[in-house]
């Protein structure tokens, strides 16, 4: 299997499959990002537009649960945006998690980006929900597997309230995660690398190592604030933020 074949195989997966590393034992993170980039090229060739990036596994608790020791980056396209009121399309085993979402007002290029310089590039902050859906059986994978799979990306929705970052204490911005009317988890922005601006800086610096940058107008999903919960057919998942309103998705 080569990079192009691996990207096509992952894009074409509609049911659980074994991790790439099961048949590509020496798969490393650099090769996995090459697979991710090739999958993006194939997505764009079929008409999708690049609109930003997401970070995955930014909380220590999730890293420990997944047996992975560092965050990852993945691409966002317009085909992943879920309009308000539209149910999540059928997926393999979807899970939902609340996120803080940045919209960039200016280009952010590393290396050497700090949390402060990263936050200065942000135009607005929104609350959101990301729906993840690993193609791998039972969500079991190595870090290169997760990177190649574009960070288990599926869909995301953005809430109705956007505020300038200076008006918020993002480390204390809280989210309540509700499933079918029951609060199941809560967290603050501090769960995301200590502060979501740290995640944004990490994204800029990581992209710089690949000769890339975060562009004006891009969205950046900074990582799940809580653990992800299963999104079953017919269920409703809502995230309620301290100052950023609420957003609800239905399965």
In words, what does this structure look like?
The chain has 251 residues and is an alpha+beta fold. The chain is built from 7 helices and 11 strands. The strands form 2 sheets. Strands 1, 2, 3, 4, 5, 8 and 9 form a 7-stranded mixed sheet that branches. The chain has a 4-stranded antiparallel sheet with strand order 7-6-10-11, with no helix packed on it.
Average per-residue pLDDT, rounded, comes to 95
Order of helices and strands: HHHEHEEHEHEEEHEEEE
Gyration radius, in Å: 17 Å
Uncertain stretches of 5 or more adjacent residues: none
* Total E-strand runs: 11
Q: For the report, how would you describe the main beta sheet?
A: 7 strands, mixed
Q: Give me the number of helical elements.
A: 7
Name the features.
251 residues; alpha+beta; seven-stranded mixed beta sheet; four-stranded antiparallel beta sheet; 7 helices; 29% strand
Summarize the SSE layout with pairings.
Layout: H1 3-11, H2 20-23, H3 29-45, E1 50-56, H4 60-66, E2 72-77, E3 95-104, H5 115-120, E4 122-132, H6 143-148, E5 153-163, E6 174-179, E7 182-188, H7 196-208, E8 219-221, E9 229-230, E10 236-241, E11 246-250
Short summary:
This protein has 7 helices and 11 strands. By secondary structure, the protein is α+β, with helices and mostly antiparallel strands.
